[in-house]
Design brief:
single chain; mainly alpha; 74% helix; 0% strand; globular
């Protein structure tokens, strides 16, 4: 996760505008919803706001760290890693 965030921070603005920031925000939102469902299964998950393309890396880190705290199995961790790798490839960073 840290590596992906670092790559996003180093990416040129043109790449962020094309797709990288959108992919990163989508991943951050997915990870945040997952963490919220684990922590509060009966509550409706709140959507992470779009804080702009230059904040996408930080949003991923916050969501990933929140999720890491609540994950309970190696299978869940493996699924989270798979989601990150998939988003990284889509973002092209």
């Amino acid at each position: 996760m840290d590596h992906f965030a670092d790559r996003l921070r180093a990416a040129p603005q043109s790449r962020l505008q094309r797709s990288a920031a959108a992919e990163a925000l989508a991943l951050a939102r997915e990870l945040a919803r997952w963490a919220q469902r684990v922590e509060e299964p009966s509550a409706e998950p709140r959507e992470m706001p779009d804080a702009g393309m230059f904040a996408a890396a930080d949003q991923i880190l916050v969501a990933a760290h929140d999720l890491a705290v609540v994950l309970e199995s190696d299978d869940e961790v493996a699924e989270a890693v798979r989601l990150v790798e998939e988003a990284r490839k889509k973002a092209g960073v």
